[in-house]
Design brief:
Oligomer: single chain
Strand content: 35-45%
Radius of gyration: 20 Å
Number of strands: 26
CATH architecture: 5 Propeller
Strand order of the largest sheet: 15-16-17-18-19
Helix content: under 10%
Number of helices: 3
Structural class: mainly beta
Length: about 425
Amino acid sequence: MSRPPITRRTAVAASLSSLVALAALAAPAVQAQPRPGPGGAAACSGRTVASWSAEPAVTGEFARYGNDNTRVDDWTGGDGTHSVRLPDGRTLWLFSDTYLDRIHPPPGPLGEPYGRRTSDTGSTPYLRHNTAVVMSRSGRLERTLTGGGAGQAPGAFFPDPAGGGWRWPVRASVQSRTPGSPRKVVRVLLWNRAPGTGPWAFGVPRSTEVATLSLPGLRLEGITEVVGQASVTDPGRRVLYGAATASAGGWTYVFGGDDRPRTPASSAYLARVPAGRLARRADWRFWDGERWRRRAGSAVPVLAAGGGRGVGSAFTVVRDGAAWVLITTATGGAGTAGMNAFTSYWSCSPQGPWHGPNGRIVPPRPSGDGPRHITAYNPQAHPEFTASGRLLLSYDINWIGPPGVPPDARLNGNVDLYRPRFLRVRLGPAR
């Protein structure tokens, strides 16, 4: 079975080598002062990450499931980690590029204390552009959802677009099938990318789509484009929406980012949709700096890149009381810091102004050959797993070697790589 030529894991390798040099030029940000919310100073105050710790239980559950060879065509690793709680208590985990293969337990071929991936025939592991993994109400991962028919090799759960390219799932929510209906479905935001070369080796942004999944069966019913970007001639100015979502006041706010492969940071943009109408293209509105507009091209950044500020290609937004908190890779970090550290911003409204960056998280990374090349990225909040006031935050792990060194052998040779890890995060006042 041939492998897709372009994947997110190679995207990081292709683009981040230039970020190391560029990030060193970023200037430090000036700490903004708190801005009162609509209800006065007491209604909204600055928030940041007050403390954090590793969450070994959830990290360990993904390691257990990934190492289980009961099936050899299911998930053993992936990135782009997102989740949604289903009405019956299960959790659907969504992944972008995913390995589907057999795990050989340690020791590895050179005596390494970690396992390695191969296909069931011993050849290169299956790699698909997306999958979904179902977790039981008790927190045990049970099965992988893929595409493809009976007797075929597993394919992407959200099928690749006709004519080439792929889809990466991002945020998802449970909504009414039609406005006001008691019947529920899962709406999944997708990033549609076309093949590219050079700085676009990780794919050219094409559109934001919404997929509909049935409940409780999780059958893919259809995919609808909601924000097309083909008319934007400069791919670096195309905005894909769904990096983060949050609900307030009867609206679903959908955050997006532009794609700047030769810069250390992207800008964040904002759209909103009436609650329950994510798949209705005509209901989307975009923030132009003063008001909500129908035309996606009217959107301006709510958090602009530059001067040590900005977001990574993937970030997350949560509500904490009256405040909004955005967590992202530390794009203003010097040297390789931006590839291994997270920071946060806060605001009294989704439109901003966003204050920060505030604080710093340097999450644990697995050991392995060339540890300086192991990177952490894509922080994602999972509010449905909040416990004792502590937010569950995932992050992805990759191997970014010297230029010209492909990551495949490293990722396949150490199963601790290319799997999500988890933190418990407590938010507190920004100083």
